[in-house]
Each structure stands twice: as C-alpha cells, then as structure tokens.
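During the reporting period the student researcher (J.K.) took over the structure-prediction task from the postdoctoral fellow and processed the backlog of single-chain submissions. One of the processed entries is reproduced below for the supervisory committee.
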Amino acid sequence: MLKLFTPVISAIVGSEVQAVTQRAKRSAILYTIMALALLTGAFFLLIAVFFFLMMKFGLIISALIITTACVAVAIIAYIVNRIMDKAEKRRLEQRRAAIDTNAALSAAAVAAVPVLLKKPLLTIAVPLAGLIAVSLLSQKKKPEGPKGNTKKQD
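J.K. obtained the following structure tokens:
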C-alpha cells in the first residue's frame, strides 16, 4: 500500500525542495544587489560629507572627523554586540538550568516509582495525587472584574 504512495510523496517533496531552493537563490541575488547599492550610496554619502567638512575645516581636520566618527560607530556596534551576546548567553544558561532541573525531577520521579509502588496504600495514593495535581494545575483562573472583584457581573 505504501509503495503506491511513494511516487506521489516524492514528487510533492521534490517540488517543495525545488521551490525552496529557487526562492533562496532569488533572495540571495536580490540581497546582494541591495547590499551593493547600499554600500555605493554610503560611499558617496561619505565622500559628500568629507567635501562638506573639508570646505568648513580643512583637509586634515575633516579626515580626522570622519575617521573618529567611523571608529566611534565601530566601538558602539562592538559594545552593543557584546551586551546582546551576554544577554543571549544568560538566557541559554537559564534554559539549560530549567531543562536540567526538569530532567533531574523526572529522573527522581521515575526512580521513586518502584519504591512507592511496593506499598499497597501508596499504589492507590500516587495516581490520586497525580490526578489532583493535574486538575489543580489545569483549572482556569477566574477573570477579575473591575476593582479586583472576582464575582461575575450580569
């Protein structure tokens, strides 16, 4: 039965892969053209700013102003990048810690099941405690009305 669907599935997957590849190529070409146009515009803007500053302050001072501005932008970009990297690293560490905690709790729960199930009273109590916990955690909170009232207003 599955052999009948294999050509259909492969044709669908093949056409999807081809469409994604074409879209990626087209996007790469367009982004390259946009980047070149943007760099060309930025270059000529920099030249225009240089000529303007040269008329105001002279050749050496205008070159120093533009160089200082470019270095300042690079330093600011570096600082922003470092701050973003640290924030991302902190988020990843928090996620790992949460995953590690969940894994440890799951392992402890799985390891405790055989010990708990050896006692007849706990054999009944453990599933009941689980059902109670699930029902308490899945209950929806009542929406609060104005002024913090939880009563339903008609």
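The committee noted the following: The chain is about 85% helix and 0% strand.
J.K. will present the remaining backlog at the next meeting.
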